[in-house]
User: Fold these one by one.
Assistant:
Number 1:
Amino acid sequence: MAFSFFRHMLHLHRNKIVKFSILIFLWICSVPGVQAQNKFYVRQNLSNHDDKSMHYGFYLGVNSSRFTLEHSDFYVQQPLRINPKFSPGFNIGFVLNKRITDYVDARFVPGVGFYSRKIEFTDGNEPTMQEIGATSLEFPLLFKFKSKRRGNIRMYFVGGAKASTDVGNKKRNSLSEEGRIEVNGTDAAIEYGVGLDLFYPYFKFAPEIRFSNGLINRYIPGTNQNLQGMRSNTITLYLNFEN
């Protein structure tokens, strides 16, 4: 009984646990490097990097994305169960970074995201699945809050907003035509995350975890009476390369 209750609590708070674990992991990774550089003198790579007004680069990313669903009153009366599933995808784009102060940058990181979001339908029989894939043009505007640089390592937080529009969709499903869910192609989201600047002799490498929570209801009314709202939810690991 106690184990079932504990498992239920973990399920309810799994998103908070994942985010907290990622922060602890990044902090643990940064501490050994800082301690080692304090103990021994390390030559500072790209020593004038922070003096430049603009920086440019590119990024690669892998994502895990799903829709957060809002069920209708009609859904409560049905034996049908509709559950969103996380599915993998990837991202690619450019980095334009503008220095504002010693500890704050503005970043415009336009790119292309490839997403695959799945929704599972269960009514007591064999589950059916609808996959809503999309190729999206994305335009995030972010603010980067940097810590003090320690040798060749620096931690940072990032936050801002993103606008996006779909330029291609693919729908794979085993549903009848009347049961399919349709979504609109525009979205806006709040984004926030954490990362590490790692300075190398010829470039800066910055792994970054970023969370994206959609603000726009993308559900097209009437396509499935069991729903009344759908918003995007994405976790992405970015690998940034900057000059």
Note: The chain has one domain: 2-242.
Number 2:
Amino acid sequence: MTSDHKQQRWAWVLTGSGHFFDESLDIMSRLEGCDVFISQAAEEVLRMYGHKSPFPEDTQVFRDTTASAAPVGQFYKGVYHTLIMAPVSSNTVAKCVAGISDNLATNVFAQAGKCRVSCIYFACDTAPELQSKAPKGMVEVYPRRIDLENVERLKDFEATEVVDSMAALEQAIMARRECLKKSSS
């Protein structure tokens, strides 16, 4: 596996959550060397929110089109130093917590963990009440107890940092970037 972080890339998973979707795309657009893994549900969200091709030119885009999620093999080749999952739907959180890897998003999370790739995870359902942007405006959302419990369970996963806000997501990415700079010096 590659150990030179300068050669490795960021991996970013988009799922079917619209919560802070635009803001996540904005952060992603500022990362150099970032590849995107798009679940089938994220494809729908991209269309609903009117995004045609929001990714930087050097971005490789992997879509959920194979039963075995073939693109996850990149993790075994040492292509990625960090996985960012943001925003993450309650469905994907539940599957990740249960160890289910039956689509591109959940399979990427599982394989990144097996390859000891650090993960920054922004789950959407992090508070009992929140406002979220929907395609036609803001809506009130009341996550279920199970959704909140699953986010808590994620915090116990190896090499997984769970953040609960966009500011925390940006801070975690900046801290990871600094860590990578120091380790390649």
Note: The helical segments are 21-29, 40-48, 73-76, 90-98, 104-114, 145-154, 166-183.
Number 3:
Amino acid sequence: MDRRYRKVIIAGNWKMNVNPSEAKKLANALLPCAAVRDTTVVLCVPAIDLTVVKRVLRQSRIAVGGQNCHFEESGAYTGETSAQMLANAGAKYVIIGHSERRTMFGDTDEVVRKKVAAAIRDGLRPIICVGESELQREMGMTEDVIRSQVKSAVYGVSADEFRRVVFAYEPVWAIGTGKTATPEDANEICKLIRACLREKYGARPSRGVSILYGGSMNEKNAPALLAMPHVDGGLVGGASLDPDAFAAIVAATK
């Protein structure tokens, strides 16, 4: 697969870490990552950090993203943040369907679908996470799970809207565990995701969608993972909090 047709993306997910005063320091430390040409760098930060980080990055090519959004624009949803609010604060991307949201907070495939629609409606690029649990993997259900999650996430997304979508293969069993899919396994699942998208949207549109790998990616395993032809970047968790480690991952895209 030729990467000329799509962006190489490294997205850092700070999760529930880094308060606003710390965010300013960390964002400044990550500014050199913008120097790697032809790689899109995104920092997906806690909502409370968005304006601070956006201010630090305003003169750089690094984009800012949210980690979740509600599917309604506004309303009586105490503690939630809408896609519209994220966009207004300067976000360009938003992570949707992260395994922690699915397993800890009950985000179903239907909820993910509605959040994807909301993100696109309000001008954000959704980074849609899909992945199987350890039990599903052991039972040989990986392909069925991936196909179901992918098709549900883009149900109702038009061909024109589809151009804004990013996917991330994020095996549940690899999140926060230190376990990582082998480069070959990651490549095969990213290839499967594109095949699912091709069935719905056709070959030309689907070849332009960036498909990332997320699951304990770090500076040591990133070169091998990013060398795979169907892995277009990474969704990076813990290593995104370490400027040196994150910079090494971004550099590995070359």
Note: The longest helix spans residues 183-201.
